[in-house]
Write a structure and sequence with these properties.
Layout: H1 3-10, H2 20-23, E1 27-30, H3 48-59, E2 63-66, E3 70-71, E4 89-90, E5 93-96, E6 102-104, E7 109-117, E8 124-133, E9 136-143, E10 158-159, E11 164-167, E12 181-186, E13 199-200, H4 205-211, H5 216-219
Parallel strand pairs: 1-2
Antiparallel strand pairs: 2-5, 3-4, 4-13, 5-12, 6-11, 7-8, 7-10, 8-9, 9-12
């Protein structure tokens, strides 16, 4: 990891990417690793998403946080991961809040690309913003949005700091997931525009964790 890039990103003050009272309120830090105790509380009538909601209500959490650089096995039964079952390392941060909540740009930028992958287990609607700080170009990705989020967007469109440019999607439009924002920091898009892989094979962890460093450098949450 470039220490200079980390220092640059951490030097700036960013607008919250979800409503401030949720982003900076009480988080429920969710552990979805295979060893997590959450799986002991899952049954045929009570899945992991329901257990997360139960824990969030008990804690009075304002946001459910899915961790960066966490190994998970929740993707392997979805259509999006057929033939790619080795992809288990999550390289973004998930912010679980109700559908319809706004998504804000943390800093000024422009729309690099956007799209909608309806495959089960995918991002559903996603947007990538391109940013530049002191000559350093990087990107932020927003996955699991509402379909309506894409209607007013165009490639190259300028997005201001704090502008509400999208909204959280519901399960019937966001790839089939409980409502949440997948937020990812990406240095080199490697030719991609509308999306970028958010879960990778751990054997490539060194490259991907360097190219997609901790999004909390921007979120600045107490995790």
């Amino acid at each position: 990891m470039s220490a200079a890039f980390e220092a640059l990103i951490k030097r700036y003050d960013y607008h919250p990417v979800i409503p401030a009272e949720r982003q900076y309120g009480q988080p429920l830090i969710v552990d979805l690793t295979p060893e997590s105790e959450i799986w002991q509380k899952v049954s045929d009538g009570h899945d992991y998403a329901q257990e997360i909601k139960r824990q969030a209500a008990e804690l009075q959490a304002t946001v459910e946080v899915g961790r960066y650089a966490e190994e998970r096995l929740i993707y392997q039964e979805t259509d999006n991961f057929v033939g790619q079952e080795a992809r288990t390392l999550h390289i973004g941060i998930d912010l679980g809040i109700p559908a319809g909540n706004p998504v804000y740009a943390p800093l000024e930028g422009c729309v690099l690309g956007f799209g909608n992958d309806p495959t089960q287990g995918s991002y559903g609607p996603s947007v990538v913003l391109r940013h530049e700080l002191e000559g350093q170009v990087f990107h932020t990705l927003y996955g699991h949005l509402s379909v309506r989020s894409l209607a007013a967007l165009s490639v190259g469109q300028e997005i201001g700091r704090g502008e509400a440019f999208a909204a959280i999607g519901s399960p019937d439009e966001n790839g089939g997931w409980p409502p949440h924002l997948h937020f990812q920091l990406i240095r080199d898009m490697q030719g991609h525009t509308a999306d970028y892989v958010g879960v990778v094979d751990p054997q490539y962890a060194e490259f991907y964790l360097d190219n997609c460093p901790d999004p909390n450098w921007i979120l600045n949450m107490s995790l």
